[in-house]
Design a protein that fits this description.
The complex is a heterodimer of chains A (about 290) and B (about 425).
Chain A (H helix, E strand, L loop, with lengths): L10 H31 L14 H8 L1 H34 L4 H8 L6 H12 L4 H8 L19 H23 L3 H10 L4 H30 L2 H6 L7 H9 L7 H33 L1
Helix pairs in contact in A: 1-12, 2-12, 3-7, 3-9, 5-7, 7-9, 8-9, 9-12, 11-12
Chain B lengths: L7 H21 L14 H8 L3 E7 L3 H17 L3 E7 L2 H13 L10 E4 L1 H9 L22 H4 E2 L2 E2 L4 E8 L1 E5 L11 H10 L12 H15 L11 H19 L13 H9 L5 E4 L5 H7 L6 E4 L7 E7 L7 H12 L1 H11 L12 H9 L9 H6 L7 H16 L2
Parallel strand pairs in B: 1-2, 1-3
Antiparallel strand pairs in B: 3-10, 4-5, 6-10, 7-8, 7-9
Helix pairs in contact in B: 2-12, 3-13, 4-5, 8-9, 9-16
The chains are: A mainly alpha (about 290), B alpha+beta (about 425).
Chain lengths: ~290, ~425
């Protein structure tokens, strides 16, 4: 048996045939889903007799204070969570490399990778809420006199509770990626730089950081896009108003009035837009950094 | 080789576009043929068809005691008739309605995955709007003879005519739950006395953010007190009457806001969150639709022993909740059997005894023994007797009013 007969098939077609299974999945679940969302956001609702095409949903979003407040919160939470997780993750990875790649250190660093975000959010609630563990401890030690005395760390206006959960969870993810990048011969490069007389700061800026940036920024993009679009953590740890965009979208989606469906889909399209913009901005920023360092 | 060739990227784009079109085409093809019809009038054939079926019952799953009852008693009763129960717990009934809607949108007019939904109010109205329900089967249920169909609450679900599209199975009468160590009986006499207690004790009272089902009831309770009951808000929806009532309600809600939990700067997300605040000692009082379940919480030690209930002056709001069967349900026979078992006086009694859920059937229509059993059911000190809870029950508003209140509460109270 030989596959030489495949030579008679044109190359373009052959690649296409090989890609078809993957492309069909992407098309049905991604392109299909997104185009459905876009269509419904413009009023496509075949199950309602009165539906018609219009951009009303987008116009009403523009005037909806819930969406306006949400936009700022969503961007704040995504950017801050990603930024903090990236810094702490990289710092943790560097620290672990310094103490030597011991298994216990690795295990501790990665312990929460397998914990679902939902569980993480509930843990934050048990830990940080006004009747949570920290509040009870501070009450027991006489620091506070009751639940209301303890600072608002969950359901707070700024979103600290949400950010805390994402940082706790995503630090491990970015840390693992950074550790992998550090294992790719970075030590040798650093040694070479040291021999050439580079100080610790110079070695970090000109050798370690450029080696880390490509993979860490790719991981950060994943984190940011995930945070901007995820629902359960802001639902559990955030406020009903202002809420992040995914929470607002689902609220519209669950609206008992079916004519609110286009708004739900318009918010979903907006989330897609916000993610794309954030990711593009992040890529531009980091690629510039990498170029400057090299 | 000179013929033009599609190169990789273009071909890929073509395939993607074709597949996307295909998806859109499939979903827009909504067929209107009815699903497999099961006639509830011919009960023997319903039982025969249901034997061996699995009924997928979508229901709000936030009540542990009720979940245990469904998985135990109800599942056992169904098993006797060869029906397997698959209880699907949802956090919001709207999710179940959305599932049926999504299937209908995808052209699935039979073989639907939702066989029954515990439902009432706006969610039922949504299904009526999109023509999702199977109708005209309720009177065919053998146990429907225990239901008083002349009662407005059974005939009209939050103002939407039921028209045999859902069978009643529970009655919910609201009450205020409070810690008698913190509030005196005079504090819980009326809405005004409750609100002045709250003003004197900042941060110790709240209600869930609307559109939460119970939060919506708490706001309507204050609305009834403000405008003197539901009578001025008649069906169909009257914009002027609504505006007049709402304009008096919002200032009152905003006036008490600073004395609520977290200074009213935010509201708990759900009734479950409110009940957790109470069990954690963060608040001292809350409204509930399930006063019967409070006994169990006190017994378990979740709520303090000093927990009591009150019906405020002017009456409490009550409603009936139902079982609806989607028109495309795959196992509609099994769903009918479920609806019938739920209406059985024995089930209603067991529900009352274990969970304190009030019967949706008319006790007068049951035999003497059942009536006596209801009267003899042990009652916790924390829970009000059935007669007190049903004495001054006020009807729900039409779902159009409820929906508007929930929307406008967000702009006029939450976002202020």
């Amino acid at each position: 048996m030989s596959f030489s007969s495949s030579r008679s098939v044109p190359r373009g077609l052959r690649i296409l045939l090989l890609l078809t299974p993957a492309l069909v999945v992407v098309a049905v679940f991604f392109v299909g889903g997104v185009s459905q969302a876009v269509a419904q956001s413009f009023g496509y609702q075949p199950f309602l007799p009165s539906s018609r095409w219009s951009a009303d949903a987008y116009r009403s979003l523009w005037h909806d204070p819930a969406v306006r407040a949400s936009l700022g919160l969503t961007i704040r939470v995504s950017v801050l969570s990603t930024f903090l997780a990236a810094i702490i993750g990289v710092a943790g990875a560097l620290l672990i490399r310094r103490v030597g790649s011991r298994t216990w250190a690795h295990a501790m660093f990665q312990a929460n990778l397998a914990v679902p975000h939902l569980v993480g959010a509930l843990c934050m609630l048990l830990l940080l809420s006004q009747s949570g563990l920290l509040s009870r401890l501070s009450h027991a030690t006489g620091l506070t006199s009751g639940p209301a005395d303890f600072p608002e760390l969950t359901q707070d206006r700024f979103g600290w509770g949400i950010i805390a959960e994402y940082v706790w969870k995503e630090t491990a993810f970015i840390g693992v990626i950074a550790l992998a990048a550090l294992n790719r011969g970075v030590s040798e490069l650093e040694d070479a730089a040291r021999l050439l007389g580079a100080g610790a700061g110079q070695r970090f800026r000109h050798v370690t950081l450029p080696a880390l940036l490509p993979s860490v920024s790719a991981a950060s993009v994943l984190v940011m896009a995930f945070v901007a679009g995820s629902y359960e953590v802001p639902y559990l740890l955030g406020r009903p108003y202002p809420a992040t965009l995914p929470v607002v979208a689902l609220e519209y989606y669950r609206d008992v009035d079916l004519t609110a469906r286009p708004q739900a889909m318009a918010v979903a399209v907006l989330i897609t837009g916000v993610s794309v913009v954030l990711v593009a901005a992040y890529f531009t920023l980091t690629s510039r950094l990498v170029r400057r360092e090299l | 080789m000179s013929h033009p060739r599609l190169t990789g990227p273009w071909l890929a784009a073509g395939v993607l576009a074709a597949a996307a079109l295909m998806v859109t085409a499939c979903t827009s093809q909504s067929s209107t043929t009815a699903g497999q019809r099961v006639d509830s009038g011919d009960w023997d054939s319903v039982l025969a068809q249901a034997d061996g079926q699995t009924v997928n019952w979508y229901m709000y799953g936030g009540d542990d005691t009720l979940n245990g009852f469904i998985a135990g008693y109800v599942a056992d009763r169904l098993a006797e008739l060869g029906v397997t129960l698959n209880q699907v717990r949802v956090t919001d009934t709207a999710d179940a309605v959305n599932k049926v809607l999504g299937e209908k949108q995808a052209g699935r007019s039979s073989g639907g995955s939702v066989d029954a939904i515990w439902i009432n109010g706006e969610n039922f109205a949504t299904g009526v709007q999109a023509d999702l329900w199977s109708c005209g089967w309720v009177r065919g249920l053998p146990n429907s003879r225990f239901v008083d169909f002349t009662r407005p609450a059974v005939n009209n679900d939050f103002g939407t005519p039921v028209k045999g599209c859902e069978a009643p199975w529970q009655e919910a009468d609201s009450a205020l739950v409070y810690d008698s160590d913190q509030l005196s009986e005079s504090d819980v006499e009326s809405v005004s006395s409750l609100l002045s207690w709250a003003a004197a004790h900042p941060g110790r009272f709240t209600y869930p953010a609307l559109p939460d089902f119970t939060g919506s009831m708490a706001v309507r309770t204050i609305l009834y007190d403000t405008v003197g009951g539901p009578d001025s808000l008649t069906d169909p929806f009257d914009e002027d009457a609504y505006t007049a009532a709402a304009n008096r309600l919002w200032p009152r809600l905003n006036a008490i806001e600073h004395s609520l939990w977290r200074g009213g700067s935010t509201y708990p997300r759900s009734q479950a969150a409110v009940e957790k605040l109470y069990s954690d000692g963060e608040i001292d009082a809350f409204f509930t639709y399930g006063p019967g379940a409070v006994a169990d919480q006190v017994k378990k030690g979740v709520y303090p022993d000093s927990t009591r209930e009150a019906v405020l002056d002017g009456g409490n709001i009550g409603n009936v909740s139902f079982l609806a069967i989607p028109a495309n349900a795959e196992h509609s026979a099994a769903a009918l059997v479920l609806a019938n078992i739920l209406l059985d006086p024995e089930t209603q009694l067991a529900l009352y005894e274990t969970e304190g859920i009030y019967p949706a059937i008319d006790l007068e229509r049951t035999d003497k023994q059942t009536q006596q059993a209801f009267a003899d059911a042990p009652r916790s000190l924390s829970v009000l007797p059935l007669s007190t809870l049903t004495q001054h029950t006020q009807p729900e508003l039409g779902s159009d009013y409820v929906t508007r209140l929930e929307h406008d509460w967000k702009t006029n109270v939450l976002q202020q």
